[in-house]
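ok so I'm stuck.
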Amino acid sequence: MFFVMSVFLPAKFEYILYELNDFLSSFIDIQIWILLVIIFLSILGLVKLFEFIKSFYPKKHSFHTYKNDIFRNVQWKWSWNNFTIEKLWCFCPTCNQELSYKCDHLLFKTELLCQKCEKHLTSYDGDNINYVLSNVKAEIRRLSKKRFK
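replied:
not stuck anymore, here's the structure
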């Protein structure tokens, strides 16, 4: 390597490299086991540094895999944004079609209907679809805490 460097460098630098090489080779008289210990400790230190840096990144929790379930004979699907349930909606368990809803304000009920199968799947107390969605979200949170402690 010294020969290759000397071909491309001027004479002044040749002398500096020669002296530096001579100094380092005479100064460092280290046994191989000490060198291996230093390398091992360096690698261990880098691993610990990467673990420390990684601890600042947000963690994916195991409950993020819980994205669908069946409540009251209706398939519910959703996605997670950190700890928030988003895009929650109901689907027919038979044909997987999105369900429609019918709110009856006099009876204080919300019915979930499949237009493709032409059947009534279930009804919830409450005359508002947002009330139904909030109840289902509460059930999802309760189950996710229970399953993924």
